[in-house]
Amino acid sequence: MNDEKFLTIHFVDGTKMELSFPTQIKNSMTALVDASERLLKAEKLVVECEGKVLVIPWTSVKYVEATAVPEAALPVGSIKRAKVLKASPI
Prior knowledge:
- The chain has 1 helix and 5 strands; from the N terminus they run ββαβββ.
- The chain is mainly β and 90 residues long.
- It has one domain (4-73): Roll (SH3 type barrels).
- Strands 2-1-5 form a 3-stranded antiparallel β-sheet, with no helix packed on it. It has a two-stranded antiparallel ribbon with strand order 3-4.
- A hairpin with a 2-residue loop joins strand 3 and strand 4 (52-57).
């Protein structure tokens, strides 16, 4: 089973960073929900990547795309099963 996940971070300056990583939390929806809430409340995203630590302040992030996120891990009030019909650059 391939548990590879993908994350694309779009920065406010127009650049982006694409990451791949294995599943971080398995077999516990409660733990996944708790981790998601902590991540969204944090002031920064911390990623260990190839022996280095990346510290990315959320203030420099325009938006994030993540694959394979279970609906139950999303915050209450999230819009689910949406489709992007059109997006324009700013």
